[in-house]
Amino acid sequence: MKNIELNRILLVAVFLLTFFGCTSLDEEILDESLTGSGQAEVVSGSIAPAYGMLRKVWLHTNNFGLQEIASDEAILPNRGGKDWYDGGKYIAVHQHLMTPSNALVGDTWTQITLCLFRTVIAQEKLKVEADKGNTAAAGALNEMIAMNAYLNMMALDNWGLIFKKERSDAMSEILRGQAAIDYLESQLLSVVDVIGTNNGPGRFTKDAVRALLARLYLNAAVYRDPYGTPNFKKEDMDKVIQYTSSIISGAHTLSPEYFALFNDNNNSNSELIFSLDQKGLLQTEHQRWAYWSISGDQVPRPEFPNTRGTDAAAATPDFIQTWADAYGSIEQAEADARFYQKNTIVPENLKDLTGVNPTNDTEHYYCVKATDFEIDRGFIRGIIWGPRKDAKGNIITCTDGTVRIYPVINKRTSGANLRYVDHTLQVDFTTEGSLHNTGYRFSKYQFSHTANDCCSFSSVDLVMIRLGEIYLMSAEAKLRNGDNAGALEDINTLRTSRNARPAQTPKALTSIDLDILFRESGFELYWEGLRRNYQIRFGKYEGTWTGKDDKDVHKRLFPIPQKAIDGASNLEGYMVQNQGY
C-alpha cells in the first residue's frame, strides 16, 4: 500500500466488517492517495482503483465463473478426480445446490462490494474537485456514478438487492425490487445526457449508460418479482427500444468478422461499447477467459512455452445441441461464422491419424512460424494440434527455426494407453465424463501476441457491452411489444453482418418467436457472462441440463454469503437471507 491515510484504512475495515464479517484486508490497493496536485492526478487517482478492480470482479473464479457455471452453457467437473474440485463450489453452483458458504458466490460478493466501495470513495473525492470547477473531475464523477450503477446491477442480478451508499462513512441502505430499480434508474438518468461520448478505451460513455438503461428496463420485470412469472410492461419495452435505437443509429458498427471482437486489436473495434482496457495505463493482467477452458496440454502461443490452458470449464452437450437443432447437425453449424473459425491448418496428408501411434509419432508434424500459429476459435472439438516441448521445456523447432506443430499429447495418459487430446462432446460429473479431455472447449478470445504473457497478461480487451447485444435487446423488446417484423429485422441485421467469411455468413431467418430469439442470444453472446441473465428472463432457468435437474425458482438468486449475514448480525433485520436458503 502506498500513501493511504489512516482514516481510509479504518473506513475500509468498517465496511468489510459490516458486510463481510471476518475477512482478510490483504487486497491489492491501487494509488488512492490523490496526493498529486494537478487535475489529471486527481482524476486518475480516483477512477483507477475502481476501473482496475473491475477485472477482479470479472475473474473466472469470481463473477464470470459464477454466471457461466450456473447456466446451461458451461460445466466444470472435478477433472480426473483431482483438479478444479475446489471444495465442490463449481459443481454446487452448476447443480443449483449452492449454500450461503459457497466460495464462488462469496468471492463474487466480496469483489463486487469492494469495487462498489471504491466507486463511493472516488465519487466523494471527485465531487469535491468538481465543486471547485474542475471540469475533468466533473466528467470523471459521471463515470463513477455509472460504474456504481453497473456494479449494483450485478448485485441485483445475483442477490436481488443493491447498496445505496452515498458516503464512505455511512451505512449502506439495502434496496430491493421497485425501490432498487428506481434508484438505479435515477442514477443512470442523472448522467446519460452529460457523460462524455468518448472518454477513451475502457471507460464509461454515453452509449454505455444508454446500454445499462436498456438492460435495466429489459430486466425490470424480473427485478420486481424475481421468483414469479415476469410481467413485461409495454412502457419498459418502449424505453428499451428508445435507448437501443439511439445506440444503433450512432457511431458503433457491427463487426463483419465475429472473432475480431475478441482479437488482440479489439481495443479499436467499432462494435465495442464498454470493455476492460488491457492496453492503456490501467493494464494489469487478466485473460483467464481465454485459457480457462483450453486443454492443459495445449501451448496456445509458441512464443511463450510455459503457458498453457487449464482444462477447466467446457460447453455442456445441451448448449452444443442448440446449434445442432438450428442447423441440422454440429458439423452443419460451422455454416455460422460465430460457431467456428479454422485457424490451425493441418496439411491434408497429415489429417488422417489412423494407425498413427502417439508413442512414436515424432515425424507426424508440419512447420509454421511461431507468430503465425493460432488455435481454432469458437468451439474446439476432437483431436487438437499444437507445439510440443522437448525434455528441457523448449519448443521443438524445424531446421529453419519454425515451430513443429503436432497432434497434442494427453500427458495424463502413458505407456500403451498414451493418447492424443481428443475433446469429446460428452462431459458430466461421472468419472468418465470428468476426464481432462471431455467436453468441447470455448475458444472465443485470441491468445495475445503483444502482451508479456499471452495467458495472464493479455492485451486483448475484455468485452462487457457491445453492439451485438444492443440488437438482441432491441429485438426482444419489439417482440414482447408484438412487433414481430421489427424483431426479425433486428436479428437478421445482426446475423448477416458477420460476413467476413462469406461461406459462413449466417443466413437470414424467415420467422421469429421468443424461443428462436433465446437461441439466437446464445449463439451471439456465449462465453460473455450473460447466459444466466437471459435464461432467467426467458423462463429457462428451471430447466434440466447436464448434471442439473433442480427446478426451485428460488435458485434464480444466489444465497447471500454467510459471512455477510454474520457481519451484520448486530443490526436486526439489516441483512436478510434470500428465500430458499
From TrEMBL:
Keyword Membrane appears in the UniProt entry: yes
Gene3D superfamilies in the record: 1.25.40.390
Subcellular location: Cell outer membrane
Residue stretches making up the RagB/SusD domain: 436-568
The keyword Translocase is annotated on this UniProt entry: no
Keyword line: Cell outer membrane, Membrane, Signal
Location (main, coarse): membrane
PROSITE patterns per UniProt: PROKAR_LIPOPROTEIN (PS51257)
Sequence similarity: Belongs to the SusD family.
Protein name, entry field: RagB/SusD family nutrient uptake outer membrane protein
